[in-house]
Amino acid sequence: MGAKFSAADYIQLGLDRKKLIDEVSCLVRPYDALLFPTVAAIAPPIHEVEQSDEDYVRWNMLLLRNTGLVNLLDGCAATIPCHAPGEPPVGFSVAGMSCSDKHVLAVAQAVEAALFSITEGTEKSPPERSRL
User: Fold this and answer.
1) Are 124 and 112 in contact (CB under 8 A)?
2) Which of 41, 48, 62, 104 is deepest in the core (most CB within 10 A)?
3) What does residue 42 show for φ and ψ, rounded to 5 degrees?
4) DSSP symbols for 2-16
5) Distance of CA 108 to the CA centre of its chain
6) Closest CA to 34 of 79, 65, 3
């Protein structure tokens, strides 16, 4: 795969990525976080992905698209479950740029509490999660 990539191409790619990270950092600086669906589609049943290599690659690229963008930008993110009981699991991502982990986690905690109070119809807090 990388055999056609020269050392100069690799170095240029790193420089281009750094420039992109710097530009996006400036654009998102005024905001507390980026909010988006964790994945672009609900994950399919395994048998649907195993039908062919093309199906696997298509689903893999679609499901990793949003999280891959955060990784490309050297960011960090937390995902919050936001599906209704009995429905397929989906997540809501709260993301930020490099070294904003504590802030992103604080925003994610606030968003989770707000979503929980809306879906549960109470002012209760979401269930406690273990801390790393």
Assistant:
1) no
2) 104
3) -70, 135
4) GGG--HHHHHHHHHH
5) 12
6) 79
